[in-house]
Every structure is written in structure tokens, then in C-alpha cells.
Amino acid sequence: MGWNSWNAFGTKLDEQTLLEVADVMVDRGLLTAGYDYFVIDDGWQHATRVGGRLVPDPDRFPSGMDWLGDQIRQRGLRLGLYLTPGRRTCAEIYEGYGLGSGLGSYGHEAQDLEQLLGWGVELLKYDWCRGDSCGTGINERAAFTKMAELIDQAPTDMIYSISEYGGSRPWEWAPGVAHMWRTTLDLSPRWWHILWHAHRTQRWSPVSRPGAVNDPDMLVAGLGSITGPAAWSHVAMWAMLAAPLFAGNDLCKSDGATIKALCDPTLISLAQDPLVSAGQIIARRPGLDVWERRTKSGRARLIVNQLPVAQSVSLDRWGRDGWRVRTHEGEGAFSTRLRLPGRGSVLLLEANLGQ
């Protein structure tokens, strides 16, 4: 669990902005709720290597990465950083940032990892970004495995997050290589896109296990129209998937409902359930998905209203009296029918999960 800079800021990063977000994570309860990784995505680098080494952009990070990492840790957070296995990063390729300057880790894998470890980085996001271009001749499995082997040899532990968008079917080979692997292309803050990512990822739920999970991309709660009931449903579906929870919005501008959804203790307990038995869709009705996940405390079922208008749903078909009932508004009593708002959902819990 944590926060990632990309969705909110792209390459428009600087140390002051990032520390303001870190302060909000502490002040608004996200750190206490479990969001402890602070991941700086693409765009932190100077436009060229210096003496073969990656360095933070001196204008936007004048105090250096050592200092920034210390500041992050003083707030109780863990620093995460971005690299890519090819010759160029995504920002170089798609935004012309430092075009052709070779900010990718191809040929520098051990050197770049050593730099990150020296800065106290505890999570590596390794992003494919057309790593096989520019004559590298590499493929996803080999490139990501190479870095995994270097991490295994490192003197300290590091969370390893790989992102190749599901193109090489990582659910078949990444367990045991990485702690989490992307199953999809980038998620956008559109409701239908959230549903598509959830539907696609749940197909591979059986491979999830402790220390190795599917990643349908970082959360877009609080971005665009994904607020209120939609934000809560989004977090709830990711919790059913046992997916990593990484907020991606500008927390400094976040509304209270989004913070409440991100920090919902029941959703977090579900997401962090030690069985890591990811859920799947067990039934579909017109405009409704019904999910089920096994947990240490029993079954969890989530009924999601796909539609932008309210729907009345029957609960006694999916639970019974005595089950806990939770929506974006909080805890409620079990009843035979419940009216879900547009893009809202209801979570049914067989036992005392999250109490």
C-alpha cells in the first residue's frame, strides 16, 4: 500500500510538491491506515546520465535524493523509485523528455540498483516501456528476471513491482520473480475502464499468493469523476482482487469522501487478508457484478452497480442475517433489499473481518 506520483503529476515533479503530499499522507491518516510506500515515478531523473550514473534533476531536486529520502523516512514512509529495463524511460519515449539520452537501465542494471539501495529505496517499480527497442534485443521475462536476481543478491530487502502491461502473460511466470506484476495497460479515471481492468484481472486471481499478486494498476480514486460511491466501489474491487492499493491522486486536493474510501478500515482489512486468496466474479445480473473472495474469517461478497443510476438489489440471495453489511456510507444492518446508488456497491462479510 502506498502512493505513486504518476497519475497526479506525471513528470512535473519537484521535492517541495512531493513533501507536501507526504505531509498529507501523515496528517490525513493514510500512513496510519497502511499507505506507507511513497513511490516517485518517471521524471525524477536529470535529462542525461552524469558519469554514467542517474542523478535527480538538479533544478527540481536541488537537495538531492539522499536528502529527500531522509525526509520521506522521517515522516514514517518508505521510498520507492522508478527504473526501466530498456535504453529509455516512458517519458523519454512518449513525452520527449531527455530523448535519446539513455536513462533506461539497459547495461546499467547493477549500477542503477546499487544507486537506489544507497538512497535507501525500498520499492523498485521496473517499467517495460518498449524495452526491446533501440537494439537491446531483450524480452520481458529475461529482463525482469535479471533485475530480480540482482535484487535477491542485495544486502537489504526490496519490494519489486514490474510493469509490462500483461503483454507477456506475467501471471504465468512472474510469481517467484516479482512481488506484483501489471495485468493491464495503464488505468484511466473512467468508470468503464475500472470495470474492464477488474474484469480482466479477476481471470487470473487463482495465481495470487502471499508475496506475489496481480496488479491492475494504481488507484484512480479522486481523479476525474471517480469520487463518492464510485471511488469506494473502485477501492472495494481492488480489495476483492487482493491487489496492491496505491493511491494516485493529488492528495493535497483530495475531497473527504475519497480519503474516507482510501482509508476505509474494512476495505483495507479485506485487501490485506493474510490468505491472499484473490476474488472472482461469481454471478452477473443486468447492470450488476457479484464478487466473492475467501478470507481468513470467512467469505466476502461484493455487489457492484455498474450503472450510473440507482438500482435495488436483493441481499438475501448473497448473504444472510448476521452478515456484516458495508457501503460507502458505513456499516448497516442486513436487510432483504438495498438500493445502491449509481456506481455504488455493497460489501457482505460472513464474519468479523475488519473489526
Looking at the overall shape, the CATH architecture of the largest domain is Alpha-Beta Barrel
Total E-strand runs: 16
In the predicted model, the low-confidence regions spanning at least 5 consecutive residues are none
Helix content: 25-40%
Chain-averaged pLDDT: 96
Number of helices: 11
Q: Kindly provide the radius of gyration, computed on alpha-carbon positions and rounded to a whole number of angstroms.
A: 20 Å
CATH topology of the largest domain: TIM Barrel
CATH homologous superfamily heading of the largest domain: Aldolase class I
Shape: globular
Q: What letter string, H or E per element, gives the SSE order?
A: EHHHEHEHHEHEEHEHEHHEEEEEEEE
Which key phrases capture this entry?
355 residues; alpha/beta; TIM Barrel; six-stranded antiparallel β-sheet; 11 helices
How does this structure look, described?
This protein is an alpha/beta fold and 355 residues long. Helix content is 28%, strand content 21%. The chain is built from eleven helices and 16 strands. Strands 7-6-5-4-3-2-1-8 form an eight-stranded parallel beta sheet.
Write a short abstract of this structure:
This protein is an alpha/beta fold. It is built from eleven helices and 16 strands.
Give the topology, please.
Layout: E1 2-4, H1 6-9, H2 15-27, H3 30-33, E2 37-40, H4 64-74, E3 78-83, H5 90-95, H6 109-118, E4 123-127, H7 140-153, E5 159-163, E6 180-182, H8 191-201, E7 213-215, H9 228-240, E8 246-247, H10 256-262, H11 265-271, E9 280-285, E10 288-295, E11 298-305, E12 311-314, E13 324-327, E14 330-332, E15 337-340, E16 345-349
Parallel strand pairs: 1-2, 1-8, 2-3, 3-4, 4-5, 5-6, 6-7
Antiparallel strand pairs: 9-10, 10-11, 11-16, 12-15, 13-14, 13-16
